[in-house]
Amino acid sequence: MRALSLSPHTPDDVLERIEDKAPAFPRRADAVIIGGGIMGLSTAYYLAGAGLKVVVIEKDRVAGQQSGRNWGFVRTQYRDPAEMPLAVTALKLWRGLEAELGQPVGWRETGCLFAAADEAEYAAFAAWTRQVGDMAPTARLLDAAQTAALLPALSRPSAGALYTPDDGQAEPGQATSAYARAAAARGVQVLEDCGAVAIDVAGGRVTGVQTEHGLITAGIVICAAGAVSHDLLRPLSLVLPQKTVRNTVSLTTPAPPLSAACFCGFGIGLRQRADGSCIIAAESMSDVDVTLGSFRNLGFFLSSFLVNRHSFRLSVGRALVDELHALLVRPRAERLVEPRRPFLPPNEKRVEMIRDLLGQLFQGAGPVGIVKSWAGAIDVLPDALPVIDADTGVSGLIVATGFSGHGFGLGPAVGTTVAGLAQGRPPGFDLTPLRLDRFAKGTFGQPHAPL
Ligand SMILES: Cc1cc2nc3c(=O)[nH]c(=O)nc-3n(C[C@H](O)[C@H](O)[C@H](O)COP(=O)(O)OP(=O)(O)OC[C@H]3O[C@@H](n4cnc5c(N)ncnc54)[C@H](O)[C@@H]3O)c2cc1C
Known about the structure:
By secondary structure, this protein is an alpha/beta fold. It has 15 helices and 22 strands. It has helices at 38-49, 66-69, 84-95, 97-101, 119-132, 144-150, 172-185, 229-233, 292-296, 298-307, 318-329, 332-335, 348-361, 411-422, 437-441, and strands at residues 2-3, 31-34, 54-57, 73-74, 112-115, 140-142, 161-164, 168-169, 189-192, 196-202, 205-211, 214-217, 220-223, 243-252, 262-265, 268-272, 278-282, 286-289, 312-315, 370-380, 387-389, 397-401. The protein has an eight-stranded mixed β-sheet, sandwiched between helices. It has a seven-stranded mixed β-sheet with strand order 1-9-3-2-13-22-21. It has a three-stranded antiparallel β-sheet with strand order 10-11-12. Strand 16 and strand 17 form a beta hairpin. Bound molecules: flavin-adenine dinucleotide.
């Protein structure tokens, strides 16, 4: 176990390392938060601001999983209407976040643009603008000529675009680590290499968290353990059908200006950073590593999988072998912690394909080199909406997980919302669509858009 130590991170090599100090293991806290991603850390920061004694436990490194590996889009645009109140709140918080945390987060209000490849896509964007109405007051449809004028570097004609000028971007590792540092400055104990092995419950109430280093008693436990939250909740008989898909991302060498706005379209996702380098990835294309869990939750995912089957490539290989091996040799508690850093190889074919596509779509890009590539395991729920719920059936247990590939931008609002729930404050907007029991009751719907 080590105290907060920010290691150089996959996409961002800018994080200084904080020297390890052997921390005194906390036996008691007001709240224990499981997971050192943006959800756990932002919640910790706001809860500590309200005077609570908070401990965050992270089985590996802060920002080591999705929150440090994502594309960095911060958007209200084209979200499920159920997420819009959170997304709008988050956007306001992002604007003042560097001042609030006293650290860089890489925030830039560059807008977000989804180009329509054909009339059907344009019609879907138009339907979304009608559906969300005033919730997205600055989102607007652009025709083909307006799109071309806004994106002179785009070589391919579009059928128009959906554009939200006040969306933006941030640096994932930097922003998540900024929350970690700011939380630590408020007195939060952030423990790395400290995995949760069980959530303790007595008489219908949480009483604490068993970690690999001992028990921390607390009346509030927040499960923000990303892709493996379901493993922590299953022993409490809580149903969370969660799967992961592996998404490959690359960082390029600096290019001439291609798109100021975060861009999606024609099969590519592109975020051009302040120094001209680009984060690129396949739009709506991921690998699915088949595991035993894939079969366990098949019924929940089958219909959306069939609808979106062109967005996934099934891969049977090391993930399944590793899982079977772990089942044979590791006790259950150990399997909750190991592997601390799951094997997540980038899909090299997709790296090449997307680099070539970038060159075709933006011919002025010139020869673009790949600086590095990585993959992230996106935690997906059947309706591609997260769970944010304090009414879980276990008093004191709050769940914030399953952000289905678009949680980074929501992070600050999830933090304030969950911190409020932990103090018994109503959220100020309707969280009913994000309840945990929608899966046990079978009341969940279909995803609003492919991942
Ligand atoms: C490739 C990729 C691209 C994406 N692009 C975007 C984007 O552009 N915009 C956007 O809004 N979102 C995006 N997302 C989604 C976004 O990154 C996630 O929704 C968000 O980061 C989820 O945060 P989290 O804190 O819930 O999970 P995580 O960041 O995964 O954190 C969970 C943490 O819990 C820890 N943990 C797990 N088990 C235990 C245990 N037993 N004990 C202690 N700790 C444990 C893990 O090690 C991990 O660090 C993307 C995701 C990926 C992977």
